[in-house]
Amino acid sequence: MLARAKETGVTKKRPVIGIIGNTALLGGDYPAHAGGKMNSAAVAEVAGAMPMLIPADPHYVSVPELLEICDGFLLTGGRPNVHPSEYGEPPTEAHGDFDRCRDAITLPLVRACVERGQPFFGICRGFQEVNVAMGGTLWPEIRELPGRMNHRMPPDGTIDEKFAIRHAVHFSDNGPFHRVVGARDVMTNTLHGQGIKDPGARIVIDGTADDGTPEAIFVKDAAGFALAVQWHPEYNAANDPVSRPLFEAFGDAARAWAEGRRPAPALKAV
Of these four, 37, 40, 111, 227, which has the most CB atoms within 10 Å of its CB? Predict the structure, then answer.
């Protein structure tokens, strides 16, 4: 979108996409809120929006403030998982690490966006957050289920090797992902351990891997763009034939919201 604006000589105020940040330790002991550069690049260069990193901690930000400031939200991946108490299960070692501050922001944020029609796009942990926010549950470890492949990131190799295309995803015929991407069968990367167990109310599974693992969802009857994927489309988003149209559609939805067109009917996830 930035490139298109430069080519035409027309510049317009970009919509603001709030990118959910993760808690990190810099240098091993300096607490920080961090976000991957891939996310910012995909938002700025493909969605044509201004990326804004959000410290996902209710001590510093509130959902009403975020809804007012941002035109859309990118729910990013992250190493900590949604706490299982959010879907009525006790934590176990298999559930891994948690980020309760992020839970406190993202889960009510998803629900508010669904009702308002404010656009959001969920990625990996963000995909799982959308399901949990709508009342769904998660498997703590997909690879331990009978018949499932290992969807986790390879432990070794370069960044390109870790984010390499690894399996197929099959979209529903004429569903929102089929319409946006223009294909029913695509290839994606995979870097996750958890996955959907029970879909939440209004969650529609619109894409699955060969082993039956849910990979693409949308919120039924959401007032606006409410899509999420289990893989990482932010990697090589400008060039990947699956990632690019998803981020472009997300950017169009954010522009519509910023311009007061709420919702944009062509971008509704129904």
Answer: 227
